From TrEMBL:
Keywords: Cytoplasm, DNA-binding
UniProt KW Cytoplasm keyword: yes
Family (UniProt): Belongs to the YbaB/EbfC family.
Name of the protein described by the UniProt record: Nucleoid-associated protein SCNU_11325
InterPro entries associated with the record: YbaB-like_sf (IPR036894), YbaB/EbfC (IPR004401)
Database matches in Pfam families: YbaB_DNA_bd
MF-aspect GO terms: DNA binding
Task performed by this protein: Binds to DNA and alters its conformation. May be involved in regulation of gene expression, nucleoid organization and DNA protection.
Amino acid sequence: MGPTTLGAVTDAFDPSALFGGGAGGENPMAGLMAQVQQMQSQMEAAHEVISATAVVGTAGNGLVTLTGDGTGAIKSVEISRDVVDPEDIETLQDLVVGAFADFAANRDALVADKMGPLAGGGGLPGLS
């Protein structure tokens, strides 16, 4: 058996086929840049919605309620008089911690919903 020869490669690599942006490699990065700009616009719009959305965290069936926004900023804390007992401060502390945990979970769900695939690290289409 003799050596095998491959035919010459005649087609030059055309990056526009991967990134878009013009036939024949006219501007192969234009498509990629357009995707990046679109993703940036989507992220900014989602961040505005997240910032403007109220988020609530509760514990003890509403005995402690935290209200804030999607950025995580707490705007108010409400504590029912029913839970204020100078002899049992630990219960109140536990309820406050529970309300913060609920607030954080609700905020994370909001961010995941509004950011969608942008938050998942999926990257640019065609490059994952």
